[in-house]
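subagent[fold] <- orchestrator: predict structure for attached chain, return tokens only, no commentary.
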Amino acid sequence: MHSPNKRPMTRAERAHVERVKAAGCVCCDAQGITEAHEIEQGSWFTAVSLCPDCHRGPNGLHGTKTYMRVRKLTELAMLNETLRRLSCMSQDGRSLL
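subagent[fold] -> orchestrator:
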């Protein structure tokens, strides 16, 4: 969902977010298309890859954060894992491993 208070994404930010969304959930390891959570609103290059449940679900990041606590994850740790996964992906989103 796009906030009316946010500036539109640049082409580079949009391309980065598409790669993030192809990385799989860094909280529960669900594969498939995920959502990009901005650690700070409007800072798209620090987006974290999360499935809808881990992102917006009742136990997810915007809920009780139970999933994060159980897995002992912080937003910084999830950003690190997102960036690690991106470094192992080709530009078209396929794994290089």
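orchestrator: received. Logging for downstream: The longest strand covers residues 35-38. Helices lie at 11-21, 52-56, 66-70, 75-87.
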